[in-house]
Amino acid sequence: MSLDRAIMAFAGVMILISVVLTQFVSPWWWILTAFIGLNLFQSAFTGFCPAGMVMRRLGIGKGADGMSCSR
Known about the structure:
This is DUF2892 domain-containing protein. The protein is an all-alpha fold. Helices cover 66% and strands 0% of the residues.
């Protein structure tokens, strides 16, 4: 799996988890959803992605085109 796809999968899972937590635990979990969205937005413009840095250290490689979220 490429780093870019791993980041998209991780973000999707975290958003789904935050929606479930919002529904069953507390509405304050929407803050996590907003944080994930803002992080994805800033990553699109800056190329800085903390999740990408962690995943790279775990051994997930670069995308097929040589570009990745964390440079």
